[in-house]
């Protein structure tokens, strides 16, 4: 298990004084990077051995939103290895009360960066992270986000991949897809100003790179008095499937 403490920042909040989804989820990503670095497995280390970890799936539960300048604790714990996949819990909680803001599970796989083919994790890949433990006990039954017939989706946006979206793998960063989907839905009226995701499931299919064109399609698939579920597909103009996302949206109080 690995944790660090910090504070939320005014620059991370939107015009409604709510933390931007990109900022909130970047905390999760950053804690895995810190854990790797402090375990001797930095980005430079992986470059030397021609390896990289890529994201396959997110299962994210947002239970509450931290206020501006809150003291928060962000943590992560690898909890399982099955075949090519390694699984990690993530969380964000109030540093004083211990109240959880975010709980998440994730699936990762390692690739040879010369061939971009998956390689099975070895004990040397896992041992530096310390004891494996399922801290949150989340039950992620499936890594598949099964979309409704895409022909029934509405095309809501198209945009070019620019350098601000890329990470050290020269791919669109995994959190960027989630933010792009949510923000384009907001701009298109699929999300109202008082709605925010309380559950997000993401399945990654292919990696988009600089100057690729992203096309975002969305469709409501369920609704109730308190929440709505919308599916979003992010494709290329050539039909490449980059990412499937399912957002459950809840009205903020």
Topology:
Elements: E1 2-7, H1 21-38, H2 43-48, E2 51-62, E3 71-82, E4 85-94, E5 100-112, E6 117-119, H3 123-126, E7 154-160, H4 174-187, E8 195-204, E9 213-223, E10 227-236, E11 241-251
Antiparallel strand pairs: 1-3, 2-5, 2-8, 3-4, 4-5, 5-6, 7-9, 8-11, 9-10, 10-11
Helix pairs in contact: 1-4
Task: Please summarize what this structure is.
The protein has 253 residues and is of the alpha+beta class. The chain has helices spanning 21-38, 43-48, 123-126, 174-187, and strands spanning 2-7, 51-62, 71-82, 85-94, 100-112, 117-119, 154-160, 195-204, 213-223, 227-236, 241-251.
Could you describe the 3D structure shown?
It is a single chain. The protein is an alpha+beta fold and 253 residues long. The chain has four helices and eleven strands, in the order E-H-H-E-E-E-E-E-H-E-H-E-E-E-E. The model has no long low-confidence stretch (mean pLDDT 93).
Q: What is the residue-averaged pLDDT?
A: 93
Task: Please state the structural category.
Answer: alpha+beta
> Which H/E pattern describes the elements?
EHHEEEEEHEHEEEE
The biggest beta sheet, please?
11 strands, antiparallel
Q: How many individual β-strands?
A: 11
Helicity level: 10-25%
Strand content: 35-45%
Helical element count? 4
| First-to-last CA distance | 33 Å
Poorly predicted runs are: none
The backbone outline, from C-alpha atoms, is: globular
Radius of gyration: 18 Å
